[in-house]
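DATA SHEET
Item: assembly model
Revision: 1
Owner: S.N.
Input lines:
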Amino acid sequence: MDKAKLDKAKLDLVRGTLDVLILKALAWGPLHGYAITSLILRQSDEALLVEEGTLYPALWRLESKALLAAEWGLSENNRKAKFYRLTTSGRRQLRQETKTWEAYALAVAKVLNATQPPIVDEAV
Amino acid sequence: MTPLPMWRRYARLLGPDPKADVRDELYFHIETKTDDLVAHGWPREHARREAERQFGSLLDIQKIGNRIGEKMERRRQLKDYWIEARQDLRYTLRTLGRDRNFAAVSILILALGIGANIAVFSVVNTLLLRQLPFPQAQQLTWFEGGSGLSPALREAIGLSGTTFTVDAFEDFQRHNQSFQSLTAYNPFLGSSDYALTGRGEPQPVSGVMIAGNFFQTLGVQPVIGRLFSPEETHKGGRPAVLLSNNFWRRQFNSDPAILGQTITLSKQPVTVVGILPASFDFGSVFSPGLRMDVYIPAIMDNMRSWGNTLSIVGRLKPGVSVQQAQAEASLIGRQFEILHPGPATGIDIPTVSSLKDYVSGKLRRSLITLWCAVGLIQLIVCVNLTNLLLARGAVRSKEFALRTALGAGRGRLLRQLLTESLVLASSGAILGVALAFALTSWLAHQASLALPLLSNVRVDGSALLWTLLVTTATALLFGLIPGLRLSSGNPQEALKDGGQGRTTSSKHERLRAVMVISEMALACVLLVCAGLLLRSFVNVMNTDLGFHPERAASINITYEDGNDPARRAVVLSEITRQIGTIPGVDSTGIADMLPLGRNRSWLFFNKARPPLKGDITAAIVRIVSPGYLNAMGMHLREGRDLSWNDGPKTERVVIINQAAARRFFPGEDPVGRLSVVDDNDTRIVGVLNDVRENSVEASVGPEIYLPITQNDPEGAQLVIRTKLPPASLASSVLQTLRTMNPSQPASEFVPLQQAVSHATSPRRFFALLVIGFAALGLLLAALGIYGVISYSVTRQTQEIGIRMALGATIGNVQRSVISKAMRLAAIGIAIGTVASYLAAKGIASLLYGTESTDPAAFAAMIVMLGIVALIAAWIPARRASRIDPMIALRSN
């Protein structure tokens, strides 16, 4: 993926989208920051590269909002790493955001997929 | 993932470190990425550089992380703190709930101490600390005349010695550079000087004559209407009047339509031009205890010939100091005396002081004494509570030992104890504030107390701030000592010894002994000072007034005489005769002013010995009717009373007091001799005992009594002496007066005793408060010694049991317990006596008729304290002697 594409991907992330992606990534279990980027990258078929410059501030913000909790643990390669996991309110947040996002995406898709103009009541 | 235990995060030397966490996390990311790239075949150095390049600005992200991390850490700490505080609080409430008696007693003691503290602070704040209730009040100054006179003379001639003539006032106004404005009022005022007629029943009205710019100078604006216009303050101008807010409300039902209307004051039609604000209270500033109804313009041209009639108030220009104004005013006064030589030099030289000092300066010492007394009370309260907590703590030492053994740090235990003392102190403070509110609002309505600004006393913001300060200091003081003691105990020993570790408890014992000693010493200081003040008060009350206020009352009367002395004699003799026939009336008389109220002095000297320059040539003057001396219960020593036959055509006569006889006729019999009163030759016909005309406490100066038939009185007070309660005669007296003059206002009888109480009320007020505090201190000290001895008896039950089993008698046991208590008391009293000696020196200027080293007061108070200590020790001693040795031995 070249630089221009990467910038585009970042721009395309609607505000709040990163947060919901992080929450989703953690839905299966605790992960450290690097694993989160890899997971999102893999899940999106390499379409979404989450930059470190935005990932970590987002992680910390979510942690300070108590949507995530963090613990230090040992990584697969036996290094000391900070693992994040969803809290109860994080899980609730994820459910809610997912719903909102799907409704939003559906609405946008409907408009974009339209093949003829809607019938407008001129008399109004 | 293998979780790392939480404590690893805290394994750092100084607790958690959010910065290091952020750094570690980011490095982990870069290293993992590097590993990934290496796995894809990158050389390690390149991989590392690429990972860092992709990461971007590491520092910026680190900064964001640090910020968020620190915020979270702070929040976490705060949360931990609150959780612990909540735990402490819950625990405290539970233990206090279990120990209800202890909690109730402590809170009550604290409430008394804190309540008294706030109430006294509110009084001190109003009278000493806060500015007077005027805009830029610090600019306001007071002129006191007669600074060139000797203090004795100034005291002897009363108000006339400290006031100024119209000429002098105008001279100051003309020549000064220091003042924005100078104003004046006529302080020779009494209550009910005027009568309001033409609106239902005639009403007595109090009024004061003020210079036209009086309210402008003070910065007081009327709520409706206006102040006086220039034409209303000049001779022959339109008569006008300003009403006090209170009078307007009371008399005119707050009707704004009264503005511009004409009312009749003492037969004079006057126009109401304005209503003053409710916040302005003339009496509370200038004449404590007097209610003022109306303000009348002083017509300077009329008053020019009246002598010293004006009190002067000035407003300094910004930046001018009182000292500068003083220097200038002295100079103007001296020049004035050179141009207008009068009978006494030095009378026109003023002392300039801030108005605030004039209003409450005389009370400063009393107030500070009161403040110290209440501070001592608070200290005793602290000592007492420390004692209570220590005694309780000793019982709880096992609990503390257990908690220490379970890992609670010393700081944690200390915090728990401080939480307890804070809970107690703030509960006490809440009750105390309520108490103070009640006290101050009661005080603000004590009109009979001649204390300035009293009606302004209230618990305000600064008083609440003071409460906070006192409460916190108290909580720390009585919580910290037991806290430090308890938390330093050796847990093993305490546990081993069944909660009565020997070393700890003997340390406790010593500390409690120190507490008892200091409590005794503090109470001793309070008691001795209160004793001295009480003795002074009794001395004041026992002062020979020279008249007998019991069973006598006065009433303000109005009558018509057309300014004709002959006609006046007829009218007044008829009034006294008719009142005298009312059943129950013993004697009656009339005077223009009564003792301890208003006073003024006139020129007076021995005709045979004209005064030299600077001689004392004045005497306080009363213009009285025949029979007045008798009605007042005054004692004529020589000569005769005045008579209705002393008329305008006969020789002018006067009765003088002994002080005047001593001063002006030393070594001779003054009766029959000629004197000069106000430029008139006057024959002395009698000598009267000294009468306290001016003040109860000041020495008596020369006084003269002139017949109302030969001189112009400034009002008339009818005095009635009776065997019955004076109030029962009020209606028949008023009825008699009404039939003779229908415009007689329906004033009430004023018992003569009221004037005496009024004059002594500040002393009574302070003495009573200090005595009350001393009693409280004594009670607390007794409680303290009782608590300590009784506790130590409980702890020594076993020891006493052994001694009794070995043959000690009941007497032995009692003696040993009491002697231990009395040893402590004696040390406390010894220290207290020395401290009292110093404290008594500090209040020497408040004493009257007694020395600050008065042995009787010291002895009485020390004996009293000793007896109270004895009683407090005797109760536990008796309990000790009833210990059954068998039970005591078995109990452990």
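QC remark: Chain B touches chain A through 30 residues (CB under 8 Å).
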